[in-house]
């Protein structure tokens, strides 16, 4: 265990492939240097679904998922503004504000976000409950090379990190697909039932690089008596 923690604390580690089932990434401090980078061979997306679980006590803005290309720093961004209980969903540097969700601190939340280039519509699901569908951008794909980051918001391609937009807390169960999941599939993910793992990013076979102080730990679960 000590060796594992030592390895993940190394800055800019080489990418490793690992089964993270029952594990979580812990981002233990506010910083603009700690993050997880997620390489992928897929570089062209006509649609996107991203699902993850997060736990935080942050009262300020923070990024949950950041995908950038050289043409758009916010090519697909999931961003939370707790002060307004508001999610921002970005695609192709266009933004939609999604309100009305019951986002609580110090609680594990299931978060899924979708976007389709044909309709241009995006949607966010919190704990299995959907937002209103909002227009983001249409007519063109997300074209790579892409850089995907957890823990920071890319204000520039692969960088431009702002400490006041950093994530502090825990993340787990990340999956990404190159199509829009159906509501039933998203509900299965939320309920931790059988679902088709991500074909772009898959938590059970995840390729990742860690920079700064990010830990891999056993996911915390409530005891059942």
Q: Could you characterize the architecture of this molecule?
A:
By secondary structure, this protein is mostly beta strands. The chain contains two helices and 19 strands. It has helices at 2-9, 183-190; strands spanning 16-18, 23-27, 35-37, 44-45, 47-55, 62-69, 72-81, 86-91, 94-99, 109-116, 121-126, 129-130, 134-135, 142-143, 147-150, 169-177, 201-202, 206-211, 215-218. Strands 2, 5, 10, 11, 12, 13, 16, 17 and 19 form a nine-stranded antiparallel beta sheet that branches. The chain has an eight-stranded antiparallel beta sheet with strand order 1-18-3-15-6-7-8-9, with no helix packed on it. The longest helix has 8 residues, at 2-9.
Task: Kindly list the characteristics that best describe this protein.
nine-stranded antiparallel β-sheet, 19 strands, mainly beta, 225 residues, 2 helices, eight-stranded antiparallel β-sheet
What's the layout of helices and strands?
Elements: H1 2-9, E1 16-18, E2 23-27, E3 35-37, E4 44-45, E5 47-55, E6 62-69, E7 72-81, E8 86-91, E9 94-99, E10 109-116, E11 121-126, E12 129-130, E13 134-135, E14 142-143, E15 147-150, E16 169-177, H2 183-190, E17 201-202, E18 206-211, E19 215-218
Antiparallel strand pairs: 1-18, 2-16, 2-19, 3-15, 3-18, 4-14, 5-10, 5-16, 6-7, 6-15, 7-8, 8-9, 10-11, 11-12, 11-13, 16-17
Q: Would you summarize the structure shown here?
A:
By secondary structure, the protein is mostly beta strands. The protein has 2 helices and 19 strands.
């Amino acid at each position: 265990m000590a060796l594992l923690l030592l390895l993940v604390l190394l800055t800019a580690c080489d990418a490793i492939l690992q089964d993270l089932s029952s594990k979580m990434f812990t981002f233990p401090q506010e910083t603009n240097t700690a993050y997880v980078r997620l390489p992928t061979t897929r570089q062209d997306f006509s649609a996107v679904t991203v699902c993850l679980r997060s736990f935080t006590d942050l009262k300020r803005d923070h990024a949950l998922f950041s995908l950038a290309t050289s043409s758009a720093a916010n090519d697909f961004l999931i961003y939370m503004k707790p002060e307004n209980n508001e999610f921002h969903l970005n695609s192709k540097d266009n933004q939609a504000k999604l309100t009305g969700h019951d986002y609580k601190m110090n609680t594990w939340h299931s978060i899924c976000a979708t976007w389709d280039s044909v309709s241009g519509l995006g949607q966010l699901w919190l704990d299995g409950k959907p937002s209103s569908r909002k227009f983001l951008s249409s007519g063109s794909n997300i074209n790579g090379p892409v850089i995907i980051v957890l823990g920071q918001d890319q204000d520039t391609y692969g960088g431009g990190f702002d400490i006041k937009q950093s994530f502090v807390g825990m993340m787990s169960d990340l999956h990404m697909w190159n199509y829009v999941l159906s509501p039933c599939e998203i509900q299965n993910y939320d309920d931790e039932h059988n679902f088709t793992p991500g074909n772009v990013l898959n938590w059970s076979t995840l390729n990742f690089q860690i920079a700064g102080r990010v830990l891999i730990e056993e996911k915390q679960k409530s005891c059942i008596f």
